[in-house]
Amino acid sequence: HCYKKLLLFIILLMSRPTVTLQPNWSVVFRGETVTLRCEIQDDGGRTQWNYEWSPANRNAPTSSEYRISSVSESDMSKPTVTLQPKWPVYRGEMVTLRCEIQDDGGTQWTYEWRPTNRDSPTSSEYRINRVSESDRGEYSCVAKRGHQLTVWSDAFTLTVRSYKPRAKLTADITIIPLGGSVTLSCSVDGSSDWKFDWVRNGQQYSDVQPRGNTEPFRVIYVSEGGVYSCRGGRGDPVFHTGTILYCNIVIICNILIKCFRNFS
């Protein structure tokens, strides 16, 4: 007898409620009255349930029915479109637009995207492998599951910079004593999240001594002669900048640094 009670208690704990819409219409119009009903397999009424509803932005009941007398857009979930990664986008980069919605972790949503002038996905992510100027514009999404439908999100404006960014190289001084070192800095105007590669005499420069806690290898020490340049990279797959400036380090009695512009 105790075993049966324990088994019944476990079954009740594992029961999962189901939310249904009354009336069972596929579309609800603003101003209509609807009732959401929380249904659970019960033990025939011997157990009294208390209910909690989400969202709780109104006087949500503790009973199994959630009645909305005059339904409006505010009673519907509203997704948000975000950009991943969250940085200024250049032509040729890969970008992902994400449709995010506050969810209870339950049934899987399907998604619809605007614009639909390409093979727009039904998932929460809208990926553009090599973004171009033609991808500029406003993007929005809506989510659906069963009879539940969100409103359309606010439009997200995707801006694409048509030029390729170039890494700028600077030296802190132009002449230093023999045996000393020079600090070279690499930067990309108006952008961030870059990791920097260094080139010496046309080959990858691996003997890099970073300075301080800066962005990965943005500032380095150099004590060898040669022609130096740098470039930035970010994303997956990696998108690289061009190079706008080279520095020629000449060792005579003193170390002479001459920087010149790349016009290619």
TrEMBL record:
Keyword Transferase: no
Family annotation (Pfam families): Ig_3
Family annotation (SUPFAM superfamilies): Immunoglobulin
GO cellular component, one term: external side of plasma membrane
UniProt keyword list: Disulfide bond, Membrane, Signal, Transmembrane, Transmembrane helix
Cited InterPro entries: Ig-like_dom, Ig-like_dom_sf, Ig-like_fold, Ig_Fc_receptor, Ig_sub, Ig_sub2
SMART domains named among the record's database cross-references: IG, IGc2
PROSITE patterns per record: IG_LIKE (PS50835)
Membrane-spanning residues: 238-257
Single biological process term from Gene Ontology: immune response
Residues making up the signal peptide according to the UniProt record: 1-20
MF (Gene Ontology): transmembrane signaling receptor activity
Domain called Ig-like: residue spans: 17-53, 79-159, 165-231
Xref: PANTHER family: FC RECEPTOR-LIKE PROTEIN 4, IMMUNOGLOBULIN FC RECEPTOR
Name by which UniProt lists this protein: Ig-like domain-containing protein
